[in-house]
UniProtKB/TrEMBL annotation:
It comes from the Eukaryota. GO terms for molecular function: transcription coregulator activity. Transmembrane segments: none annotated. Component of the Mediator complex, a coactivator involved in the regulated transcription of nearly all RNA polymerase II-dependent genes. Mediator functions as a bridge to convey information from gene-specific regulatory proteins to the basal RNA polymerase II transcription machinery. Mediator is recruited to promoters by direct interactions with regulatory proteins and serves as a scaffold for the assembly of a functional preinitiation complex with RNA polymerase II and the general transcription factors. Keywords: Nucleus, Transcription, Transcription regulation. GO terms for biological process: regulation of transcription by RNA polymerase II. It comes from Drosophila lebanonensis (Fruit fly). Belongs to the Mediator complex subunit 22 family. One of its GO terms (cellular component) is mediator complex. This is Mediator of RNA polymerase II transcription subunit 22. Its main location: nucleus.
Length: 143
């Protein structure tokens, strides 16, 4: 499995967190499967016990309800796990965040260079215009 190579990349705490997510996933799926199998067994069971058929049906129905509730709990736990995994990916997807920052930095750097060029051109034009005005002033007869 890739977890061996992943441990060299991920810090210990992140590796432990991913292992706990994996354990939660396995536990919840196992719980849903076991409860579903038990519901099927209860639905197919033919009673050979000393309990009356009505009492046995009521007892089976109650057990099915408990098992169904366990399946719902496991399903909700899986949904929480999906939300936790999404949050983990958002918080730990530094590669794409760094890529976006790099792209924005390059864009802003290009814009800055363009603005700097325009400002330097404007500075040079103003300097030339001021030089021309100064030259005209000193050569003018209306001083």
């Amino acid at each position: 499995m890739a977890s061996g190579s992943r441990s060299t990349i991920l810090p210990q705490s992140k590796e432990a967190l991913l292992k706990s997510y994996n354990a939660r996933l396995k536990d919840d799926v196992r719980s849903m499967l076991e409860n579903f199998e038990e519901i099927l067994k209860l639905a197919r069971r033919e009673s050979h016990s000393q309990i009356s058929k009505t009492t046995q049906c009521e007892q089976d129905a109650l057990e099915m309800q408990v098992r169904a509730a366990n399946m719902v709990r496991a399903g909700e736990s899986l949904m929480k796990l999906v939300a936790d995994l999404k949050q983990y990916l958002i918080l730990n997807d530094f590669h794409s965040v760094n890529e976006a920052i790099t792209n924005n930095s390059q864009l802003f750097r290009a814009t800055q260079i363009e603005c700097d060029k325009k400002l330097m051109k404007l500075r040079d034009e103003m300097a030339m215009d001021l030089y021309d005005l100064e030259e005209e002033y000193y050569t003018s007869i209306f001083k």
